[in-house]
Structures are given as C-alpha cells and as structure tokens.
Design a protein that fits this description.
This protein is about 80% helix and about 0% strand. The chain is mainly alpha-helical and about 200 residues long.
Length: about 200
C-alpha cells in the first residue's frame, strides 16, 4: 500500500488513528530522550537544549491530539496502545545502533565524541524523514476532514533540519557523505517499519 493510502486508512479508523498518534508521540519522546542522553553536562549548547525541549513538546502535543479522535484513549506507551509496537520501538533504537557502528568503523570515534556525532547524524536522518512524513500526514488529515492537526510540528521540524545541517557543517567537512549514509540506514529501517504498519492495518 502506498504511504498516502496507508495514512488515509489509519485516519479512517479511530482506534488505529489514536494508536498512530500515540506511536508518533512515542517516537518524538524517544528522540527527545536520546538527545538528552548525549548532552555533555558542562558543554551542552543552546541548540541541543532547544531541540530536546521541542521534541518533548511534540510528544506531548501528539498525545493531546488523541483527544480529538472519537472514543479512543491511549494512556501509556504499552504495546496495546501502539501501532506495530515492536517495529516502532526497534526503528529508532536500531538506527542509533547502526549509526554508532558506522561512526566507530569509519571515524574511530568513542565515548562522548561518538555520542555527539551519533546525535548529529541520527537526528539529521530523522529530521529528513519528519519533513516528508508530517506533510503527508497533514495532507491526508485535511482530505479526510479530521480535527487532528500537525502543522505546528511541521514548521518546527523544518527549523530543526536547518539547525542540524549547520551543526554538521561544523562537525566535519565531509558532513554530507556521513549524513547521506545515515539517511540510507534510516531509509532501510523506515521501509521495514512501514511494512509492519501495512500488515497491521490490513488485519
């Protein structure tokens, strides 16, 4: 199923839609916690603090949007309230693992340098994805007359991508090469995730 059609099918099923929103909230919250985990306690920058705070706010905002879906509640991130739960949790965690392996192999990074570089590349890849996923979701929300709205997230994610590019340019003159590799890794994991979403929606 094409991604647009998949999203439309989710929106048109209140229970699936609520779990979809909750799953996106889980992913935003996971991203926020990963950003916080890579912070250096003394040298953490304004941009990193801002980004972590905004990702946490996105997680909260998406959770609140569930209230606009009829007769649907998702009080926690336990599997019953997620869509494709195993794959959804695996996706971001595996991206982090695979990017770290790449950085160790290609650049020989360890410890805090590895955590920071992984933050840059993983977040860049996720922001590229967010800039594709949220507009498609909003388009289908509009088509289906849903009260749910993610326009504010779209605007902030666009700003995040620009901020990540600026940080990557400072990190390495070969930043684009490394960023492209991170996007390749993310694309493989994203496609696996979408396959699982399709299977759940088809059941």
């Amino acid at each position: 199923m094409e991604f647009n059609k998949l999203i439309s099918a989710i929106i048109n099923n209140d229970q699936l839609h609520a779990r979809w929103l909750n799953t996106l909230s889980l992913m935003e919250n996971t991203g926020a916690r990963k950003i916080s985990a890579c912070e250096d306690p003394e040298t953490v920058t304004y941009i990193i603090l801002k980004h972590a705070a905004e990702e946490h706010r996105h997680a909260f905002y998406l959770k609140k949007q569930i209230e606009k879906v009829k007769l649907a509640e998702c009080p926690t991130y336990t599997s019953d309230y997620l869509i494709a739960p195993k794959s959804s949790k695996y996706y971001l965690n595996q991206l982090d693992v695979d990017v770290c392996r790449y950085l160790k192999k290609e650049l020989g990074l360890t410890a805090s340098a590895l955590r920071f570089a992984a933050y840059l590349l993983v977040t860049y890849a996720i922001e590229v994805r967010a800039d594709e996923l949220y507009p498609v979701y909003q388009e289908e929300l509009d088509k289906n007359g849903s009260k749910v709205n993610v326009k504010s997230i779209i605007l902030e994610e666009e700003g995040h991508l620009e901020e990540m590019i600026n940080q990557l340019k400072t990190f390495s003159p070969d930043w684009q090469l490394h960023a492209n590799r991170a996007v390749e890794i993310e694309s493989r994991l994203f496609n696996q995730w979408v396959d699982q979403l399709n299977k759940e929606v088809a059941n």
